[in-house]
Every structure is written in structure tokens, then in C-alpha cells.
Amino acid sequence: MDHGLKAIKYESGKLLVLDQLKLPHEFVYDDVSTCEEAFDCIKSMRVRGAPAIAIVAALALAVELWHKKDGTSKKQDLVEFINRKLDYLMESRPTAVDLSNAIQLLKTQTQKAASDATASDETQACVSIREKFIEVAKKIFEDDLATNQRIGMWGAEYLRALQPPVTSTVTDDDFRYYTTSPPGTQGAPDQTYRKISVLTHCNTGSLATSGVGTALGIIRKLHDMNYLDHAYCTETRPYNQGSRLTAFELVYEKIPSTLITDSMAASLFKTYKDEKNITAVIVGADRVVRNGDTANKIGTYQLAVLAKAHGIKFVVAAPTTSVDLEKENGDLIKIENRAQTELTQISGAVVGKDGKVDVNHTERVAIADQRINVWNPAFDVTPYQLIDSIITEHGPVPRNAKGKFDFKAIMPERW
Ligand code: MRU
To answer: How far lies 12's CA from each of 33, 47, 67, 108, 200, in Å?
Structure first.
């Protein structure tokens, strides 16, 4: 299904990236035609989200190669050019592993194309290398969409299966319930289930990926299947990916939803536990390491602690491109620290006296004493013990005998 909203648009030789700093007020695509522009776009967070970062980096270099900006007809010079550009892009943001996984893949495939290009004609060898790079970059983009769709399907099924059947009488017009025959009970009488409400953090939707999204992809799928009662999203301070981006996506998709500040999560769980039946917190991932410890947007860890305290499931939606098998545990993850102005200043569209938002008039305003010291880690690490399930495109990751997540079972080729 095409969900319309696209952070990244690509065709041979042309890459357009939606400027997410202007959302939700303006919808402007930037033409990204060099690695330097891609670096700046990623660093300034005009594009963000682990998969989207990797895709933009890969496609920006593909665009350069399509226009032959490497300016060489020597095979070895071209390989060196590609590696140099990829090393440079690697420095744009450190925590999300999708970027380094994509770069690793692109380097390996470039090297392979160079070795396979036995033609004595160096110019022809360069054509093959460029073509291979462009093909792999495009595949990273396209595979991400298919991966998200599978995560959505697995995640919706995982959450749906958590709901016990309702035994009390439910009227036909109560929209908080759905009726179905449970899987594996074909022919059994229909049973009634309560719809699912979830809380999500940061932005993991179409804007963070090639489309559909991971955690937000699961929410979309639940909604498409009529299993979703309500989606709550956090504001996600300090950068407000929740209020600026996720709220926008939820409204755009007409998904029943409510925005809360990060500090309201505990109260939400307590206040609405029975009435709204919040089944799970669903988040994305920037880097999941071998044991399942997961780096994600700052504030994720506290939601996991709160979920545990309230008996609510905590679910991570992560493509295997977000998995880092080189790190044993989360202590080894490098957390990006960002500028203090992200806490002390804020941007927004001006609201007129009539209460109307003037989308053509945006301003940056100070919201704290500019001299205060600031600590601004962009991510935190949730220990695997607090995670009930990690949903990948291959389904929920099983656990080993020690209770750690067992990625070997789902991705033996990378072990
Ligand atoms: O700083 P950001 O906006 O790039 O952080 C994004 C997140 O933390 C997302 O949850 C994560 O990248 C997964 S996106 C599918």
C-alpha cells in the first residue's frame, strides 16, 4: 500500500529529501546532489531516523557516480574515491548502525565489482563499478520498504495475539472491540477482542525510513486491520520528533491518536490502564547489539522502566539493518551528544491573535537562560531485560537459554 508521505524521492541521477526541520508547517524537498550536501542534511537533521540516514548517504553517492563526479577513468582511483566518500559520510552521525552497515555493504560490493571487472579497458571497468554501486544503493532503498512492511505484519500479529478474548457482553456498535476467529481455530465460533492501544516515542514512520516505518509501521498495520483503538505519541524532547513528525504522520493517516509530553507517560499508563487498555509501548532502534540492548531516542529507556512497572509490554521494532553483531552489549555503544541550543531554543510557526498558525512565518525563540549548562545525549540504551520483544522483518527474535536475544537464529549469515 502506498502511504503517500515520502521523506526520500529517488530516480537515476536525482535525489530529493524532505526537509524535516520545516515540518509540520512547510513541505519542502531539497535537491541533494553531492555527498557534502547529504552530510549536511544528515548532520543538521533535515533527514533523520536510522534507515533514512543510511539511504540518503548511499543514494547521494549514487547520484554523484551517475553524473560521473568522480572524474576518473581508472578503476583503482574510482574505488578509492568511493571509499573516501563513504568514510566521510560515516562521520555524519555516530549512533545509528544502519549507516555503517550500508557503508560496509557498499564497500564490499564496490570491491567485488572492481575484482570482477576483468576488462582491460579501464573506462569500461569504471562503468561497471559505478553501475554496481548505483544498483546496490537503490536496493538498500527498496529493500527498506519491503522490510518495513514485514515488520508491520509481524508486529501487528504479535500485539494482536497478546489480547485475551473478551467474555463479557459487548454491543455491536462498541468500536473498541473487534470480532474474529483466532488463528489456528478455523471454523471455531467468532470471539470478541479488545482493540489495542499503544504508545510510541520519537518518529519511526515514513519520515524515518523509505516508507511505512518500523514501530509506526506496526501502528499503521494495526489501524489498517481495524485492530487499533488508539495511538499515543510522546512529544520527544528535546528535538520534538514526536510532536513535529509523528503527530503529523498520525494526523495525515487519520489514525486515532493523542499527543502527550514525555513526562506524562507514567500517568497515562496508570490513568487509562483499564479504560484504554494500553497494550504496549512500541519504539524503533538506532542500534541493537548482540544481547538485545537497544540504543534509541533519548527517553526510550525511561519508557521501558515505566512499562515494566505498569505491566505493559515493551516492544522494539528493528530491521536487521539496525543490528550490530560486533558489540556484545549496550555499554559499547557510542552515544551522540548534540548542541545545547536544542534544549535552550525552539523553532515554530507564529500563532496569530486569532489562534491561526502562520506557516509562512517561522521563528526561533529562546526558552531558557542561554548561559545554563546543558547535557544533551541524543540517545539512550534500554537493557534487553526490559524488552519483551524485538520484532524484525524475520519476526520476533527468539531468546537463548540465558534469556538474551538470539540473533543467530534469525540471521545466521551475519553471525
Ligand atoms: O535523532 P533521530 O531523529 O535520528 O532519532 C531517531 C530514532 O531514535 C528512531 O527511533 C530510530 O532511528 C528508528 S527510525 C525507524
So the answer is: 11, 20, 10, 22, 35
Q: How many residues does the chain have?
A: 415
Give me the pLDDT at residue 177, please.
81
Give the model's pLDDT for residue 412.
87
Supply the ipTM of this predicted assembly. 0.99
Pocket test residue of 286, 324, 382 for ligand 1, highest count of atoms within 8 A of CB? 286
CB atoms within 10 A of CB 314: 22
Question: Which atom of ligand 1 is nearest to 296's Cα?
Answer: 8
The CA distance from 318 to 382, in Å, is 14
Q: What is the pLDDT of residues 235-250, one digit of tens each?
A: 999 999 999 999 999 9
Q: CA angle, corner 79, sides to 147 and 112, nearest 5?
A: 55
Residues 216, 203 contacting (CB under 8 angstroms):
yes
* HSE of 71, CA atoms in CB hemisphere, 13 A: 0
pLDDT of residue 189: 60
Q: Which residue has the cell 524488552?
A: 387
Residue 185: the pLDDT is 60
Query: Active-site residue numbers?
Result: 286
pLDDT < 50 positions in the chain = 1
What is the model's pLDDT at position 193?
86
Q: Which amino acid is at 179?
A: T
**CA nearest ligand 1 atom 10, residue:** 284
Instruction: Tell me the best of 296, 335, 336, 380 to mutate to test the pocket of ligand 1, counting ligand atoms within 8 Å of each CB and taking the most.
Output: 296
In this prediction, residue 292 carries a pLDDT of 98
Strand ranges inside 214-277, DSSP E: 228-234, 257-260
Give the position, in ligand 1's atom list, of the atom nearest the Cα of 202.
10
pLDDT tens digits, residue range 103-150? 999 999 999 999 998 767 899 999 999 999 999 999 999 999 999 999
At residue 275, the pLDDT reads 61
Lateral strand order in the sheet of 165-166? 165-166, 191-194, 177-180
Ligand 1 site, CB within 6 A: 48-51, 96, 202, 204, 208-209, 214, 241, 284-286, 296-297, 378
The pairs formed by 407-410 with CB atoms below 8 angstroms and a separation of 24 or more are 407/290, 407/320, 407/323, 407/325, 410/320
For the CA of 336, the nearest atom of ligand 1: 1
